[in-house]
Design brief:
- The protein has 2 domains: about 190 residues, no CATH class; about 90 residues, Pdz3 Domain (Roll), CATH 2.30.42.10.
- Helix content is about 45%, strand content about 20%.
- It has 9 helices and 12 strands.
- It has a 4-stranded antiparallel sheet.
- A hairpin with a 4-residue loop joins strand 9 and strand 10.
- Helix 1 packs across helix 7.
- It starts with a helix and ends with a helix.
- The model has no long low-confidence stretch (mean pLDDT about 90).
Length: about 350
Amino acid sequence: MTLILFLLLLSVIVILHEGGHLIAAKIFGVYCEEYAIGMGPVIWQKKGKETKYSVRALPIGGFVAMAGDTDNQLETKVDETEIPPERTLTGIAKWKKIIIMLAGIMMNFLLAWVIVALVLNSAGGYALSPKAEIASVVEGSAAEKAGLQAGDLIVEISSENGTSVKPKQFDDITAYMMTYEGEYALTYKVKRGDQLLDLKVYPSYSNEEGRYLIGIYAPQSEVVKVNLANCWYYSFDYCRFMMSTMLMTLSQLFRGIGLNQLSGPVGIYQATGQAASMGASSYLLMMAVISMNIGLINALPLPILDGGRVLLTLVEAVLRRPLSKRLENALMTASTILVLALFLFVTSQDLMRLFR
C-alpha cells in the first residue's frame, strides 16, 4: 500500500508539472509531439489530435516533447522537418518560452495551495503561529543554563557557522533549529523589558525527538475557524511559511550545512508510509510539501532544470543571439552530472539512515 501511495504521490505531482508545460505550449501554438509520464520504454500510449500521451516504465519524472526543444538530452526529440518555425520553441518570442518553462513550477505551487486549502477547510480550523516569545523554560535545559526566561522575546538567533535568523513567529525558530548539527553555540538575542541581551545556548540532542532542542515552549497558538471562503487565505499563509523555510534551508545547504539531512526517493517513500498511517490529511499535506519542494528545485538556475533554461533564455535575449551549441551542450552535461551526483548522494544518505 505504501508503494501504491508513493507512486500516486509522485504521479500526481509529475502529471500536473508536465501538464503546466503542455498547456502553456499549446496556448502559444508550440507543436507538442508527446506528453509522457515516467521515463524509459513506453508501456501505454494514446494518440490525441496531434500529441501522443504516454506512460513509460520508470516512474521517475516525465516530459513534454516540444518542437525546437533541444536542451534536454533525456527527452524524445521532435522531427521538425514539416513543422513551421513559428510552432517551435526557438521560433516564438522569448517571453513566451519563459512562460512555458515556468508553467510547470507554477503548477507545483498551485497544487500545493489547493491541497492545503481543502485540508484546512476539512479540518475547520487553523493554528496561527504565535510570536517568537518564550512561554516557559524546561527545568535543567540548555535554555535555562543559558539564562533564557519566560517572557523573553527572541529578536535574532545567530550561529558560529555564520547563519542567522530574525524570527517573525515562533515557527521560524523551530525551522531554524531543524538544521542545527551540534558542536557549536547559538547566540539568542532576546528583548527582556527594555534590555537587549545576547545569551549563548548549547542545544542538547533529544533521542525522543531525533533532533537538537534548547528546552523552550511557545505561547498558546490562536486557532481560527476555517471555511470554504477563507481557507484559500490561510492556505497561502501556510505555503508562504513552508516556502520561506525551504529557502532558508536551501541557502544553508549551499554553505554545506545540513547536507546529512537531505532525502531522496527512499526517504520520501518512508515518509509516505508514515504520513499515510496518520490519515488522509497528513498524506495530502505531505504531497503539498513535496510538490513545493519539486517546484523550488526546478527553479534552481541549473541548465537541465526549468530555472536554468529560463536563465539561458534571458542570456540569449540580452546577447541577441543564441548560445553556441558547444557551450550549451557543455552546460547541459555539467548540470546533468551534478544532478545525478546529488541524486546518488541523497540516496546513499537515505540507505544509511534506513540500515541504522
